[in-house]
Amino acid sequence: MKSQIHRIHQQMVNKEISCTQLVQERLDLLKSNSHNTVNSILDALALELAAKVDAKIKSGSAIGLLEGIPFGIKDVYMLQGTYATASSDLLKNYKSPYTATAIQKLLDAGAIPLVKENCDSFGHGSSSENTIFGAVKNAINPDLVGGGSSGGSAVNVAKDFTVFSIGGDTGGSIRQPAGYNKVYGFKPTYGRISRFGLMAYASSTDCVGPIAKSIEDIRILLNAMSGKDIKDQTTYQSSIILEKNILNSDEIKTVGYFKNFIENDAIEAQIKSDFLISIEKIKAKGIQVKELDFFESETLVSTYYTLAMAETASNLSRLDGTNYGNRIEGENLKETYSITRSDNFSEETKRRIVGGNQVLSQGFSDEIYLKGLNLRDQIGESFEKDFKEVDIILSPVTPNSPPKIGDSLKDPLSMYLSDAYTVGFSLGQLPTITVPQGTETGLQITAAKNNDELVLKFANFLKDTI
Ligand code: GLN
Known about the structure:
With 466 residues, this protein is of the alpha/beta class.
């Protein structure tokens, strides 16, 4: 698929379509859609911004590449004056008092926000069923889940309701729904894009990233959102990735894959054989392929969930109905906290808060939390060693195809295990993209820290190879 952003930009410049027309069309599609992708529509704001773009074009002024391009925002980002619900009862009436840095950068470039998108509540989930707005339905087969937690965002892009959407990825929440709905989803190196204004789930792995229909659009959006931000001390300055730099992949000589991800009972037979066919096609292009050893899926998933639950328990402790959230009055303050949180958090979110507080509590933290931190270090070291031997690591995105709506809710453990292939790269804070090729749920391309450009290069190479 060619760049949607370039195509639509050209149509507006050539006056084949007005920005207002474009925005109105997409708003209508969003409003009438039956995939449950929408938490709130930003029609007044979007149409006001579109009218400004049209006036600019009419006056003969040049417009920037992102100017007038309509997009969606996962409902965990702040956009001043709009609802930011995290798909939860707790924040269903909460309005953002300020705007997230990444979103502000897109607004500054002229992109037009249309919608706050449905997702798993606070990013907790892998199916976008953990939401008060109804389960998100898969773009290709509506009986299946949209994936999570950025399910609404991936489905909106896949169905062309938005040109691109901004998801959030803590353990796979951009890459997995991108795979389930056959679009591109990119999780940059941790810290490349500011997290300021993204509701914190697990701060040590939370990443902002784009979902789009082409690698070129991912590149444009990554450039637009990256950069150091004094409001997020984990950010760093990065250089612009030029289009010409990602068109030639000659420097990529060696690709690795984790043997134990593939030689495993948990992987679906079709995904396994499709993955191995992709590997053969890569070899046929003269690239050396190496099998690598890695941690068992169970270890990766338990390490991730131990740390993610601990961090989310801590991050969500501020949501007690005093400064934030729907307050439910009890007999006294303690009871007020208790009822507010018990009634307004979902079962899945409560499971994580209880688990996280257990992990952090005295008498357990040494045994569980510190062990998790130690394993995370070991995982990081293992990646460093791997990237001395290979340029790229290729893996499936998920071991299984998307489940039917309803199935994951019955079996949280199997839902957690569906994250087996994505969480390791999150713990390593590595740049990684899902491309809609190779297996039913796509392929995941990962490079060493800060090598985001190499990931896009290989994605371009794969586009023409398999
Ligand atoms: N499915 C994973 C979880 O529930 C990842 C979610 C995410 O990346 N926000 O934690």
